[in-house]
Amino acid sequence: MATIITPDLCDEFPEVNVAAPGFNNYGGVKAFGGEIVTVKCFEDNSVVKEQVGLPGKGRVMVVDGGGSMRHALLGDMLAEKAASNGWAGLIIYGCVRDVDEIGNTSLGVQALATFPRKSEKRGLGDLDVPVTFHGVTFHPGHYVYADNNGIVVSEKPLV
Q1: Which residues are annotated as part of the binding site for substrate?
Q2: Cα 90 from Cα 107, distance rounded (Å)
Q3: Which of 26, 60, 74, 134 could disulfide-link 19, Cβ–Cβ 3.0 to 4.6 Å?
């Protein structure tokens, strides 16, 4: 994959959607992108855990955690599993934990913040449904690109 620089993507493809600011980079890969897989969950990462155990095929999991600041939806063990299974990254509208270890993982991870409490496990969550946050709707099968400058969403691959 070519180098991902979101300002350059915005210049070359002015029709792209751009998420509002507020995400932080926590992964060992600072620029990443790929086809979108979505998860909608709230304080329960059961579906995230299930998906990182499957082949990622260079895709990006976009997790709508409702912006919760009370539980982390990703920790070091799931991040390592995602990297090992070929996921390009995760964008989490919520929190992550174990950020020092996640930063050493070959995975792109962006989230709103860190929080040390793990999520609940109730088996709840939806897979591959459109999710909307930070002014952008993320559709399964569309494409997302992220770096330290922001998050860009497109209906088609850009790089």
Answers
A1: 75-78, 97
A2: 8
A3: 134
